[in-house]
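Input structure tokens:
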């Protein structure tokens, strides 16, 4: 069995816990802002759950280097907020679901590490959070699917205001260029070579 860190964890476990801190921080920040923009309650619920998970995690495990994990999470969330400016409502919500999926998958991995180390209590904690956040992920998927009931609203910019409208126009322009390239002789040649 691998050596344990000073905290009594596998090195892989310690790194994964730091990653959990960073990705849960991203969910907390990104989903809270996106909830205000999209008025989707599941996003607010997810941000609140991520905040609770972080508080419990910090009380349970000493994450040396936590400022680096916090900085990583803030950096990831900043990139996502910038990308939201280019997205439609449906795209922003579906993209946000990738955040929670990452956390859910990571919690399952961490439960396996705790089980391998024989820490039944920490394993149960990870599994409890995995179950709780998977339910939020399912609700988010249902909310994304429900956007299809109003196709015009689904393609509205995710960001209100002039910046969101400009970003949406840029996104449409990039899509139009991509479609034109796909239909060009160069695009047809690339498709033939790919098969």
């Amino acid at each position: 069995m691998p050596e344990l860190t000073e905290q009594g964890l596998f090195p892989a476990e310690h790194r994964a816990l730091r990653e959990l801190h960073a990705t849960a921080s991203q969910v907390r920040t990104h989903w809270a802002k996106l909830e205000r923009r999209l008025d989707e309650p599941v996003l607010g619920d997810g941000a609140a759950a991520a905040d609770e998970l972080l508080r419990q995690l910090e009380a349970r495990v000493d994450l040396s280097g936590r400022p680096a994990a916090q900085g990583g999470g803030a950096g990831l969330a900043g990139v996502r907020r910038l990308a939201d400016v280019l997205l439609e409502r449906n795209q922003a919500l579906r993209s946000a679901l990738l955040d929670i999926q990452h956390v859910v998958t990571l919690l399952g991995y961490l439960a396996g590490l705790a089980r391998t180390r024989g820490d039944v209590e920490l394993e149960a904690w990870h599994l409890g959070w995995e179950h709780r956040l998977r339910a939020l992920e399912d609700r988010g998927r249902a909310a994304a699917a429900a956007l299809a009931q109003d196709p015009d609203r689904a393609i509205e910019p995710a960001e209100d205001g002039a910046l969101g409208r400009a970003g949406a126009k840029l996104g449409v322009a990039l899509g139009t260029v991509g479609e034109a390239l796909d239909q060009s002789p160069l695009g047809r040649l690339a498709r033939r070579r790919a098969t």
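The chain has a mean pLDDT of 86. The CA atoms of residues 23 and 73 lie 6 Å apart.
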